Fold each of these.
Amino acid sequence: MNDQLRREIEQLRREKTKALKIRYRELFGEESSSSNHAHLFRRIAWRLQALAEEDLTTRARERALALAADADLRLRAPRQFWRELEAKAKEPQRDRRLPPVGEILYRQYQGQAVSVKILNDGFEYEGKIYDSLSSIASVVTGTRWNGFTFFGLNKKVQHG
């Protein structure tokens, strides 16, 4: 990089964001959607260097052509990839606050010991299966509760 270009880039570093946006428009021929000073500075500095070096080096251009001509390059993902991706999207996401399947949650409530087993698809309390911890908390207390709050799972993500 020559000294004149180096000085111009150093001057850019001290410019206000508004001035950088104007310079960006001059160099790229369009408005920048960003008003981030560091982003604008880097993009403009890169562009000035690319223009001074007359775009890519010969080595970089040859490498890009070699990559583009790669015969093994897939144009489409295999069908199995899309099937697996679709199946994964349909799976219900397990809440990270929950302990692993098989663990037991314990809670004392008004002298009553409450223990709930974590299942793959729900929760077991006193031999009955429930869809949510909230429904168990409601049965135990007789009023509506957030199940994660009732069992102290909202304090922090413990598992994951």
Note: The first helix runs from residue 3 to 14.
Amino acid sequence: MDVVWAGGEMTVRTVCARLGQFVAYTTVMTTLDRLFRKGLLNRRRTGRAFAYEPIVTEDELDRAFASGAVSAFLRQDGQDPLPLLSSLVEVVSDLDPELLNVLERLVREKRKQREKSPPT
């Protein structure tokens, strides 16, 4: 993804050239096809090859991964999420006290958004 994000629309051959001789053409082709099937890349036919371009930004992909990890983290079957949340706050505080302020600001902003939005 880093290569395609940096280069925009690229063919398998172009990606291989950017990666150097460390990766086989078929490996790159298979990887790009899988990323296309997962909805991360667009592709269009250019002659006998495909040109691929990113659909999502790096930030969007990072957010999706983080969201999935947090959802799995909080979805412990029948367990109270409070100990997990308390641990998260503790780790954030130990790691960087300023992050605790950021977390608090984000919670306040989310509450304001929810108050403005009608319930669904």
Note: The radius of gyration is 21 Å.
Amino acid sequence: MAIVREGGAPGSPVVLVVEDEEIVRQFAVETLQEAGFEVLDAGGADDALRVLALRSDVKVMVSDVRMPGPVNGYFLAKKVRDRWPYIEIILVSGYAAPARQELHLDCDFMVKPYEGDELIKKVQSLARRSL
């Protein structure tokens, strides 16, 4: 179970990164941490749900779509939206981005591979919205 708290500036928005590929997860965590966010990470949907049950201060969740196990990123996003509607969600996939109406969720989408600056801008925008 990989749930790690990474430091950020005190009072900075808290972001949860959910990604089963260690190198991709570490890139996202380090990128967001360097941008000043407090970053939590989880290696899968079950870990992410445990983190969210313990932390009421998460503002943005960035989740891969394809993860091992019965709960993929879409299902995780639906659970999060239902239980924690105040959390902004970014789904990430190496496949083509679906149209927003095809997601049937109020969330954003990014295509892998993404640049660090792209991730930072998207998270900053959503973190401001959730204030």
Note: The domain at 4-129 is CATH 3.40.50.2300 (Rossmann fold).
Amino acid sequence: MSSSKSAIVNRALFLDRDGIINVDHGYVFKSEQFDFVDGIFDLCQQAMAKNYRIFVITNQAGIARGYYSEQDFLRLTDWMKQQFQNQGVIIDDVYYCPHHPTKGVNHYKMLCNCRKPAAGMIINAKNDHQLDLQQSIFIGDKISDMQAAEAAGIDKRILLASQYADDLKIAAHRIDFLCDAAQYFSE
């Protein structure tokens, strides 16, 4: 008699950074400026309990504009990941786009396939970690987050109501508070 294990689904919870993980104060690159959004640790703990791996997908135009360096961003990212770890949450990976098509300086001024609304960062995460995007979720606070998720084939898109315009043209679950996102986690 043989026993077969059911295949483990490698699904992800993709999170935008500014506005979802931290309060978007604009071009945040120092830990002193980094205020965690209420409920983010709890939400990620719930996601991990349901076997979601956690990834951050973030545009970082501040690098392109010369407001801070990639090293500044990476230093803050290491600090952020440690804060999550202190709360029992593992951030599997962080993908960032340092480019801007029109407002960048030096080699950062370019049109790329990673800057949201393009799906490049999500596709890279999928390929690097063998993720099932159809079983994954993306939480963001901008339409460009939802467009990137849609382009990557993520059906469960959650848009946190914010100060950004929402023309209601893209399909997404719209929530007012981050804690409301947990209802969309699958068993």
Note: Residues 70-86 form the longest helix (17 residues).
